[in-house]
Here is the input.
Amino acid sequence: MLNKVLTIQQKFPQIDIKLNEPLSHYTYTKTGGPADYLAFPKTIAETTDLVNYAREQQLPLTILGNASNLIVKDGGIRGLVLILTKMHQIQVTGKEIIVQAGAKIIDTTIAAWQGGLTGLEFAAGIPGSIGGAMFMNAGAYDGEMSEVVSAMTLLLPDGQVEKFSGRDLHFSYRHSLVQENQGIVLEAQFRLKKGDPVKIKARMDELNALRASKQPLEYPSCGSVFKRPTGYFTGKLIHEAGLQGKQIGGIQVSTKHAGFMVNVARGTATDYIDLIHFVQKTVFEKSGVRLEPEVRIIGEDPESKN
Here is the structure.
C-alpha cells in the first residue's frame, strides 16, 4: 500500500501529505499510532478530490477534525487519513453563520459573539471541530448543536455533494444523520438570534470559568469519555464505584472530574482502552448501569498492523 504515496503526492502537489505520520502529534490525548498517509486539504474541492481518489484506488479512508473526542489505537490507521483543520473559513451574514468543517467550535462561538449573535454560548469551551460537532451533535450546559443548525453540506459515499436542512439531520443525543449515511461534513450553517455582545461574552466567560473549575483541562484528555445514562450522572457513578484516581499505565480517571480520563504519564491508547473497559466493568458490578462510550475509538491494535 505504501508504494502509492508518490502517486498521491504527485497527483496532489498542492496538498500537504505526510507518510507514516504518528497521529499522537495531533490527538488531544497525545496518543495514537501512525497513519499510512495523512493529508491536510485546505478547500472543499481538495477534500472532494482526495476522497474520490481514495475510493478509486480502494484506499481505506478516515476523516478527522480536531481529534478531541477521539482515541486512535496504537496500531494507527491504514490508508488515507484527512485532517480538515486547514478547512476553517467562518462567514457571518446577518443572523447566519456558515462554517467549514475544520473550523474550531471555539472560534465559531467567538465569531458569533463578535457578530452580536446569541445561541452558541453553550459551546464556548468545547475543543472540537465543527465537523465533529455535527457528527455527534455535540453539546454542553443544556445546549446542543441540533438547536442552532439550519443546514449541513455533506459529501456522500457516492461522491455527490448534497445540502441537508436541519430537520432532515436526524439529530438526537450524541447522534446525527452523518453516523447513518457515512457522509463527510463539509460545511454547517447556523441560524442564530441577535443579542447583546456584552451579555453574550459574559455568558461565554461564565461557562468557560465553570468548565475550568470542574474539568481537568491541564492534562491531555479525550474529553467526556461516556454518554450520560438516562437517570444518572456518569461522574457520580464512577466516583461511587471508588474509581476516581484509578490509573492504568499512564492514564488516570481524573481526580478533578470522574467523567474524564487524563494522560498523566505518557500513556498509550491501549492504556486508555483498558481503563475504559475496567471502569465499565466495575461500574456495572457496583450499580448495574452499563456505561456507553461517547468517545470514538478508531484504528488498529498494534499487533494487527501488519
In short: The first strand starts at residue 16 and ends at 22. Residues 269-287 form the longest helix (19 residues).
